[in-house]
Amino acid sequence: MKIRSTVAPFLLALALVPAAALAQADKPKPAAPPAMGGPEMEAMMKAAAPGEHHKALQRYVGDWTYTMKMWMSPDQPAMESSGTMHAEPILGGRYIQSVYKGEFMGHPFEGRGTDGYDNVGKQYVGSWVDNAGTGIMSSTGTCEAACKVFNMSSEVMDPMTGKKVSTKSVVTWNNDNSFRMEMFMADPASGQSVKTMELTAKRK
Fold this sequence. Notes:
Elements: H1 8-26, H2 38-48, H3 52-57, E1 62-70, E2 79-90, E3 95-104, E4 107-118, E5 123-130, E6 137-144, E7 149-157, E8 164-175, E9 178-186, E10 193-203
Antiparallel strand pairs: 1-2, 1-10, 2-3, 3-4, 4-5, 5-6, 6-7, 7-8, 8-9, 9-10
């Protein structure tokens, strides 16, 4: 009896199935990934959990208006500007993202800040970018007086010298609806700290 040509390939495939299965069975199975648990998982969960320090940053959340003074040199008058700020929590309240918009020296200004608390490093952390430069400023610091005063330190590139200079910012909360931010920079000539910026914000 002849098997029709359309049926023969099907029967051949069926005959090869057991052989293929045996060949796969001979291959070693990949090891299962290690189960996450115990002290490792506990440490990771603790590092990722928002706490009282993150709660202290929540007071930034909302819409604000601000006025700003900036000194290019201690012996020159301050340049003044104003604008708005909107802040909101992101990533489950682990960080606060702030967007500042206004005008500076006759040009539109926009800056974005991200603030948080590093549970592992046990310090406040922040980053800042704006359209007045191309760098990213990273800051670390602490809070005092029931977190009514935040002290943050960082290093930035001085566009005049092309060298790094140390900066310090101090945020002082007058109440839940008003805060003042001051920035100080080391004078390259004297090494002394001089105020370069003061921003006063009020909740809308």
